[in-house]
Every structure is written in C-alpha cells, then in structure tokens.
Amino acid sequence: MGRQIRFYALPSDELKFWEFVQSIPDTLCLSEKSSSAVIGNFVLPYGEELPKPIFRKLYIYRNRKLNDLMPFLRKGSRKVYSEEQMDYIDTGEIFYWIDTNAPLVEFISSFFREDGSLTQGRLWVDLYKLEGQDFVYKGDDFKAFYETLVGWIRKNFKKLKGIDGYFGEEALAWYKSGGRIV
User: Fold this and answer.
1) Integer angstrom CA distances of residue 33 from 26, 42, 142, 168, 173
2) CA-CA distance, 7 to 120, in Å (whole number)?
3) Model pTM?
4) Residue 39 phi, psi dihedral angles, 5° rounding
5) Short-list 151, 101, 99, CA closest to 128
6) Residue 104 in 3-state DSSP?
7) Which residues are 27's β-sheet partners?
8) Cα(38)–Cα(91) distance, integer angstroms
9) Which among 100, 107, 102 has a CA at the least distance from the CA of 20?
10) DSSP 3-state assignment of 20?
11) Nearest 5°: CA angle at 49, between 166 and 170?
12) Most exposed among 41, 110, 133, 142, judged by the fewest C-beta atoms under 10 Å?
C-alpha cells in the first residue's frame, strides 16, 4: 500500500532538497534509530554542509508535537549472526525505533556502491496504518505533505526517457559524463 518516488541525487542535489524540506513549517528530520527512548533524541539538525553520498535512512515528520510519536516507539536489540551457533545471537545492545504506522515519510539517500555505481534514493510513504485487523487512512494532510515533497522532486529534478527515477542537477551531469547508475 506504499507509494514512492525514486531519484538520483549527489550531495548538492540532496542539500537543495533538505533546504526545501526545512522551509516547510513544523517539519523535522528524524533518525532511524536512537540509543534511548527519549523521542527528542531522534531529531536531527538540518545540515548546512554537503551530505556524503553514503546510504542513509531518515524520516521526515511534519508536526512539532514529538510526543505524538510516542505510541509508535518500539524497543529492539541488536543481533549478530554466529557461525558457531549457526543462528543469530543477541548482543545485549538496545536501540529504539519508530514503527512505520507513524505518519512519517521515509527518505533513503542515493549512494555509491563499491563498484562506483550510483544507486537510487527514494521517498516512500504508507498512507495507511494497521489498527487491529483494519487499515486506517493516515489522513489527507499527511498525503498532501507527501505530495508536496514529491512535487518538489518532479519540479526540480529531471526525468530521462527510458530511465526509472529523477535526476538532480549534479547527478545528471555526473551521469552524462559517463557515471553508472543502478
């Protein structure tokens, strides 16, 4: 039931996107995980520096009432695979994460793979949450917020015929000069 838009963005392209996000009132950037159950610890500052083209998963939240996310906070523990035991074992390291039922837009950055290829980034959203056995619509305001973000990408990034996804200006120049995408 999710929706997404995919894109290729290099650092200056991504910075322009985050500048737009920051211009939307009551919008926050949240980390994927936190080492504590304090919801404020998920809030990340908007960067003024060019981001590194590495894999990052962040959330975009539009509502300054952080405590509204508390019902969606979950506790987890890190597990690693043990060759000896042929199973995953708990490391004892605790972390907290926000359930996808929360009204969040997921942002995954474009990044370079080891072979030098640029991967697609994406904005993804699920417009429904599971309550008991029923899917419940997260609301028109949430949908409109997602569409605002998608609209900015469609307006400011370029679509090339035959290629899935949109290109930021820097990514497009890199691609046209021989860069590989996946």
Assistant:
1) 21, 7, 22, 28, 34
2) 5
3) 0.88
4) -60, -30
5) 101
6) coil
7) 62
8) 22
9) 107
10) helix
11) 30
12) 133
Structure tokens belonging to residue 141: 């305001």
Question: Tokens representing 26?
Answer: 């009551």
* Alpha carbon 46 to chain centroid, angstroms: 14
Burial code (b: 16+ CB inside 10 Å, e: under 16) for 52-67 equals: ebeebebbbbbeeeee
* C-alpha–C-alpha distance, residues 74 and 70, integer Å: 9
Give pLDDT tens digits for 18-64: 999 999 999 999 999 998 888 888 999 887 777 888 899 999 999 86
Classify the phi-psi angles of 169: left when phi > 0, otherwise alpha if psi is within -120 to 50, otherwise beta. alpha
Rounded to whole angstroms, the Cα distance separating 167 from 165 reads 7
Positions of E strands within 116-176: 121-126, 128-131, 134-137, 158-159, 166-167
Length of the chain: 182
Q: For the CA atoms of 80, 83, 87, 88, what is the dihedral angle to 10 degrees? A: 0
What are 105's two structure tokens? 């837009």
